[in-house]
Design a protein that fits this description.
198 residues; five-stranded parallel sheet; single chain; 7 strands
Length: 198
């Protein structure tokens, strides 16, 4: 197996992910309940639309959030609260750094333009060493859609057999394998070592 690319998910692998925490933070910022925030921005399909590229920029996402929630604060606060679900996993980062230079490191995530703009600014150390940041809004498809893996492979300029992928979603892992990637279900930092030394 000739591996050239190590591709990892963002929320749930590179970052620990806590959506409930984000809902509480956004609820405080919007003067709404967490359930109301979830209904307005997630159950409504808004977040999924962001992930699929309906909104062309972070500024458009912010405007839509403000329209839906009545938020009248500044962009910095909105970005911070919106991204508060994400917390870098230092153990994973340390393990990935061991392979810097030997493989092309890539993030492949179902997220929109606000996360793409804000997360590298808020957590620059987490993205150090990654050559590609593949956000679904640019690919116009979300994992586990086969088209998402096709678009990602094309962006990498790789053959499917050259890619190792780590994700915390079994559905995404199964879809990656069906596409021809070597894929591993993330269970902790040790998964990185297991993926590269099976």
């Amino acid at each position: 197996m000739s591996i050239r690319h190590l591709v990892v998910d963002l929320g749930g692998v590179l970052f620990r992910f806590d959506h409930a925490h984000r809902l509480k933070r956004l609820a405080a910022a919007f003067s709404l309940s967490p359930d109301q925030v979830d209904e307005l921005l997630w159950s409504s399909g808004f977040s999924g639309d962001c992930d699929r590229g309906r909104y062309a920029s972070a500024a458009q996402v912010r405007t839509a959030i403000a329209a839906a929630t009545g938020f009248d604060g500044d962009d910095e606060r909105l970005d911070t609260e919106w991204c508060s679900a994400f917390h870098p996993d230092q153990a994973v980062l340390d393990e990935l750094r061991r392979h810097r230079g030997s493989l092309t490191l890539t993030v492949f995530t179902n997220n929109g333009p606000l996360e793409e703009e804000a997360l590298p600014r808020l957590h620059p150390e987490a993205f150090d060493g990654f050559e590609h940041l593949l956000f679904s809004h640019r690919l116009r498809h979300r994992k586990p859609e086969p088209a998402a893996f096709a678009a990602a492979t094309d962006r990498l300029g790789a053959a499917a057999h050259e890619v190792v992928f780590i994700d915390d979603s079994p559905a995404n892992v199964d879809a990656a394998r069906a596409f021809g990637w070597t894929a591993f279900h993330f269970r902790g930092p040790e998964t990185v070592t297991q993926a590269l030394h099976p």
